[in-house]
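TA notes, week 10

Several of you asked for a full example with nothing omitted. So below is the full record: structure tokens for the whole chain, then the designed sequence directly under it. When grading your own attempts, check the secondary structure regions first.
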């Protein structure tokens, strides 16, 4: 029988003070009861937790920000290796390099980097862990300019299945370095720190357009042929809500002047005149906080994703409209995030993140109150995803979905075979495993 001997850090056993908060899932759809949660405060705590799990054959999961859509960072009756307290930061400002502990959340890191007017291209949700985001790819408002978050990694520090600490970069453990840039979350080891390339930034220009729901087709027709091919400094997002909400909106960030942004947006304004159009100059950190929204400790939701490699046909838009007209509530949304730019300049084989040639990623989202019945919302997302399959390809690993039966191919495409070989090399016993982990091969 397992004992506490060997576990170090801040250890919380089931039933102890703080356990209920520590076990909570970001997605309130899930409620799991781990046996023990270890908040690792130094790298040795991670080593000890991995060795303890091996010794006692205890199932475990790795948690950073804990934002897994399917609660894959939690497990019933097992160990949670929580790295959220690994938050050191070493900044080499002149070289544009930051070495950070893997426990940082996005907004906390952005705030620290902003003190030196630097930025990392990452996501927009404030509480998402840098680790989980990066290891699945990492898309955000600066990705078209500076690449996916994983493209900006110079080195990973990892604790392996044998409890050894290694560093993976272009010179050593190259196949692991490749694999962790797009498929590293929970598959090969526990990342304890990242070395990133960071970028100078000051002011940005922001736009926000809105349209009536009746304009959905013409808005999407134009947006999808424009946004993925726009100036690399401009990232555009498009949100299509349930018809009962009624307002289509597009937001974007331009790393340049408001005057130049207005010039770039003029063709869209003329082609599909918005109901409202707003432009504003702000600092980068203001924009990061604006897009991050208000702090939310817990949501109840079902999300999924797919990629558009070609512009959506009118038939595909009819599918979207039909589903947005027949939602189970007001919390349904389809979101488009433009790719292209620096994302596309790397080949799909350059890193494990394979979906570089997509025009945009599509998010199918449903949110509801905790007292509502979940099944209609889950079914709505799955019906829509299935109905859009003839017009889309693949899915984004960071928006994991347990209902995608062919998830290995959907997430990793032609990179899957190489990923299985890397898994065989670094974790042949499959110690690091969860519901959608890569099997050795």
């Amino acid at each position: 029988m397992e004992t506490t001997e060997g576990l170090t850090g801040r250890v919380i056993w089931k039933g102890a003070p703080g356990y209920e908060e520590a076990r909570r899932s970001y997605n309130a759809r899930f409620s799991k009861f781990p046996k023990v949660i270890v908040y690792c405060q130094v790298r040795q705590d991670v080593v000890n937790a991995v060795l303890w799990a091996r010794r006692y054959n205890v199932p475990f999961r790795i948690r950073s920000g804990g934002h897994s859509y399917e609660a894959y960072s939690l497990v019933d009756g097992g160990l949670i290796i929580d790295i959220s307290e690994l938050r050191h930061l070493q900044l080499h400002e002149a070289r544009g390099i930051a070495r950070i502990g893997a426990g940082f959340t996005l907004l906390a890191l952005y705030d620290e980097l902003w003190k030196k007017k630097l930025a990392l291209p990452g996501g927009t949700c404030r509480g998402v862990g840098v680790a989980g985001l990066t290891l699945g790819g990492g898309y955000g408002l600066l990705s078209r300019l500076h690449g996916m978050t994983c493209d900006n990694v110079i080195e990973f520090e990892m604790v392996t299945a044998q409890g050894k600490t290694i560093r993976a970069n272009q010179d050593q453990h190259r196949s692991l370095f490749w694999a962790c840039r797009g498929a590293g979350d929970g598959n090969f080891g526990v990342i304890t720190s990242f070395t990133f390339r960071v970028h100078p930034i000051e002011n940005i220009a922001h736009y926000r357009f809105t349209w009536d729901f009746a304009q959905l087709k013409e808005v999407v027709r134009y947006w999808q042929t424009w946004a993925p091919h726009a100036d690399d400094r401009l990232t555009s997002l498009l949100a299509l809500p349930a018809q009962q909400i009624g307002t289509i909106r597009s937001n974007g960030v331009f790393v340049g002047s408001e005057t130049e942004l207005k010039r770039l947006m003029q063709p869209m304004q003329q082609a599909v005149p918005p109901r409202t159009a707003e432009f504003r100059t702000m600092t980068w950190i203001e924009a990061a906080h604006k897009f991050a929204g208000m702090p939310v400790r817990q949501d109840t939701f079902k999300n999924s994703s797919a990629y558009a490699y070609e512009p959506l046909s009118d038939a595909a838009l009819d599918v979207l409209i039909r589903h947005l007209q027949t939602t189970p509530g007001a919390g349904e949304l389809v979101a488009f995030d433009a790719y292209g730019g620096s994302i596309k300049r790397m080949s799909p084989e350059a890193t494990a993140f394979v979906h570089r040639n997509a025009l945009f990623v599509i998010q199918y989202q449903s949110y509801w109150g905790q007292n509502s019945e979940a099944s209609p919302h889950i079914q709505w997302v799955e019906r829509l995803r299935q109905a859009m399959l003839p017009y889309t390809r693949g899915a984004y690993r960071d928006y994991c979905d347990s209902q995608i039966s062919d998830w290995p191919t959907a997430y990793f495409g032609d990179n899957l075979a190489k990923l299985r070989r890397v898994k065989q090399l670094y974790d042949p016993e499959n110690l690091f495993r969860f519901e959608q982990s890569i099997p050795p091969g």
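The chain has a mean pLDDT of 97. Use that as a sanity check on your answer.
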